[in-house]
Amino acid sequence: MATPAPGQPASSVSAAPQPEVTAEAGAQIDFSRSSVVTQGDPDGKLKQLLSAQSAGSITRAASAGSLGSPLAQLVTVSPFGFRVSPITGGSGDFHRGQDFAAQCGTSVLAAASGTVTFVGWHQYGGGNRVVVDHGNGLETTYNHLSSASVKVGQTVSRGDLVALSGTTGASTGCHLHFEVQVNGEVVDPTGWL
Question: Could you say which architecture CATH assigns to the domain 68-191?
């Protein structure tokens, strides 16, 4: 911005000429503020990422911090990837999510806004499970729950209560098994949290 010299009236300063901006008659103008991440819009980064491209093409660096915490405190007890199975004791077990310490009955929160697409029993060991679809191929799942607080088709916002933690299904104790799925494939949740 132009500022007047000492002793010069403000009205005597002329701004530099601005270039002319033109657009085609049929141009669509979007005044969406979703790209601005603020305390008032914590989903802003995720909205920006997902509106720009499908979840499968988003880099780990870009996705970091775009999902909120599914628990008030995150203490990892079993990371994503290969591990020794806590059920069989055998090696080479692929852990499809990340386990976080949580006493039974702890509030489980939606990691971002979306639509609940599944509430029920997961036959492959997840026990009571809730799945939230965040759009463009991104889903989060919450597993081994003692109870669910949502129903299929319900819209949730980041931080909404979706369930209470538990130890249902293939579980050795109370905790939350949290998964992030991109186009149906599990990915390391730490790349999104």
Answer: Distorted Sandwich (2.70)
